[in-house]
Write a structure and sequence with these properties.
GO terms for molecular function: aldehyde dehydrogenase (NAD+) activity. The chain is an alpha/beta fold. The protein is built from 15 helices and 22 strands.
């Protein structure tokens, strides 16, 4: 067990209450004691970032790219240790944890080259002896607040491009993933980052919000990034709006999967199994509802039920486990409330019980001792209706709804109805169906014959509606979150030339006819 404290310029910050980060697969295992700071720590971290940022921005961008390259090598060298820590602290199966760490490496591999490609443009002027230019400049200080279901990969989507672009960062990770966050921060600092450019703050939700509010009021924060629930994201968006800020919001999802009559059903079942129950359904991109054509509904549900029944659930240190425990007690509590939405018109499938897995409520084939952690039965809920809460709202946990449709237009309408817009999927062998689905769906990400989960490091990631404000992470698109365009005009004519007025014109003969 270790004690973790807020670090600003490498120095610990006095804190108030302690939080115990527990291993959700073994609740007797205290991974870390986290000393939670108050709002003043958020403001102090931003002040530190403000002092350090200008000097960091003056470092040539290709050299900042060398920092990103070094970070990628450090993460690769420490990959197994970091993955094991992620599994221990949040209960993610070790195979997924290794993939998450690899995603940091992939992100670094992509962005190390962007240090040489932070391109502006030379633009032709409408007047002689004048040149026009555009430049990307860093926004300044970014406050990044992240969830713990992807405790190192998702933060890398923010931190790597933000630092590459010459910004300073205040990072506030989730308390229940504090040890993983601290480990990742250590690697970042040791990759060559000057003091104060990245400060790490541990705080609860209210202190974070209050500290962010104070920092914005003092003009210390130029960009806010947030990954978390739609409800909290709306509050952060409102706060930023009062200060004329446009935050980068990556929020929840109720991600649909449409299975057409011509779909390859075994492939669709494989996709639904992974996207619905990987990470115990605790991803923003987790499958919410399968919308199945009525002609293949019964066959799909039968195969899906068999696959979920056969899937291995248990302690996450085993390679063959589909999912382990829920992330934290607060998520277990909320998931149990979602199970209360099951109605008499639903058919419950997928396991030998519902709710928490115990000796009295066993899961067939469970790997390990269910009494040790926060393990829950997977649930397939057939017969979901469009007015059900379980259809309309995100259910963060191992629960997937199933409903039916007749026409593609109906399927698209059902897919859009909850108002989220993060990820979506369609299984079909007809290219026309795939393109029509893409055209009609409101999600920021569309998969064809693939699951709703599985982002690649060089493709834009983000959603619309309740899932976000249209901002995007990953790839070149995230550069627009952490840089601002600056234009410059340079007139060397020796006189004042006024745009739109002192402009040469041509004199066409528009009356001419052949």
């Amino acid at each position: 067990m270790q004690t973790l404290e807020t670090l600003i310029e490498g120095k610990t910050w006095s804190a108030g209450s302690d939080y115990k980060s527990l291993n959700p697969a073994n609740l007797d295992d205290v991974v870390a004691t986290v000393r939670l700071a108050g709002p003043d720590a958020m403001k102090a971290a931003a002040e530190s970032g403000r002092r350090a940022q200008r000097e960091w921005a003056a470092v040539p961008a290709p050299v900042r790219g060398q920092f990103v390259a070094a970070l990628g090598r450090l993460v690769a060298a420490n990959a197994e240790t970091l993955a094991q820590l992620v599994t221990r602290e949040i209960g993610k199966p070790i195979a997924e944890a290794r993939g998450e760490v690899q995603e940091i490496v992939d992100t670094c591999d992509f962005f190390l080259g962007e240090g040489r490609r932070l391109y502006g443009q030379t633009v032709p002027s409408e007047m002689p002896d004048k040149q026009l230019f555009t430049f990307r400049v860093p926004v300044g200080v970014a406050t990044i607040i992240t969830a713990g279901n992807f405790p190192v990969a998702v933060p890398s989507w923010y931190l790597v491009p933000a630092l590459l672009c010459g910004n300073a960062v205040v990072w506030k990770p989730a308390e229940y993933a504090a040890a993983s966050a601290r480990a990742f921060a250590e690697l970042i600092w040791r990759a060559g980052l000057p003091e104060g450019v990245l400060n790490l703050v541990f705080a609860d939700g209210q202190a974070t919000f209050d500290g962010l509010s104070q920092s914005l009021e003092a003009g210390l924060v130029d960009k806010v990034g947030f990954t978390g629930s739609s409800a909290v994201g709306a509050k952060i968006g409102e706060l930023c709006g009062r200060h004329l800020q446009s935050p980068c919001l990556e929020l929840g999802g109720k991600n649909p999967m449409v299975v057409t009559a011509d779909a390859e059903l075994d492939l669709a079942v494989e996709g639904a199994l992974f996207s619905g129950f990987g990470t115990a359904g605790q991803r923003c991109t987790s499958l919410g509802t399968v919308i199945v054509h009525e002609d293949v509904h019964d066959e799909f549900v039968s195969r899906f039920d068999a696959a979920v029944q056969a899937a291995r659930v248990g302690t996450p240190d085993q390679d063959d486990v589909l999912f382990g425990p829920l992330l934290d007690a607060k998520f277990a509590e909320s998931y149990e409330s979602f199970l209360g939405w099951i109605g008499s018109h639903h058919r419950v499938l997928g396991s030998t019980g519902t709710g928490r897995i115990t000796a009295g409520n066993p899961r067939s084939g469970f790997a390990g001792d269910p009494a040790s952690g926060l393990f829950y039965h997977p649930v397939i809920l057939d017969g979901v209706r469009p007015d059900d809460r379980v259809f309309l709202e995100e259910t963060f946990g191992p629960l997937v709804g199933v409903t039916t449709y007749r026409t593609l237009d109906e399927a698209i309408s059902l897919a859009n109805k909850p108002g989220y817009g993060l990820s979506s999927s369609v299984y079909t062998t007809d290219p026309a169906t795939a393109f029509r689905f893409r055209q009609g769906i409101g999600a920021g990400m569309v998969s064809v014959n693939n699951s709703t989960s599985g982002a690649e490091a060089h493709l834009p990631f983000g959603g619309n509606g309740k899932s976000g404000n249209g901002s995007r992470q990953s790839g070149i698109w995230v550069l627009d979150q952490f840089t601002r365009w600056q234009s410059m005009n340079w007139d060397f004519s020796g006189k004042l030339q006024k745009a739109q007025m002192d402009v040469a014109t041509v004199s066409p003969d528009l009356e001419f006819r052949l």
